[in-house]
Amino acid sequence: MASTDHTSSDESSRLYNPYQNFDAPIKSQYLYKLPTSPEYLFTEESLKKRRSWGENLTFYSGTGYLGGSLAGAASGFFSGVRSFEYGDTAKLKVNRILNSSGHAGRSLGCRIGVVGLIYAGIESGVVAYTDRDDAWTKVVAGFGTGAVFRAARGVRAAAVAGVLGGMASGAFVAGKRVLKRYAYI
Q1: Based on the structure, what is the number of domains in the chain?
Q2: According to a count of CB atoms within 10 Å of the terminal CB, is the N or C end of the chain lower?
Q3: Is the domain of 11 the same as that of 88?
Q4: Could you tell me the pTM of the whole model?
């Protein structure tokens, strides 16, 4: 059986044999050069080092939901343990833990997932409008996310949440820069 670990003289491509799993001998006519780096239709796309709006939407809402679900499940576990009563059987204790973890995980995961969804939408909108992707874009997106998320509770709550969201995203950007500078990852 032939291996596809052939390397070509060009580092941006690799050789591929589509008949590697069959008993066909490797001939040069069966080897194709496939690119190893992403291909872009326009050169402007290759210059930007960021995710698309759809990828941002998926990433932020997915990680928010997953992180919120895990944190909520952990919180629900402890509240389920605290709700034990004297004389509960093991089945009843497990049931209390599972019900409490599922409810808290689901609700917190949905809340933080929606925050990620709003953040991704606002950030993509700001980047499309200003054609810049820098720290201020993320702070504005954090401010807008907090304000939109708490807008139903009134103007004052929206303003406070907006300021907190802007501060949180600014702290995240600053922390990321510090990690890039001092932590060799």
Answers
A1: 2
A2: C
A3: no
A4: 0.70
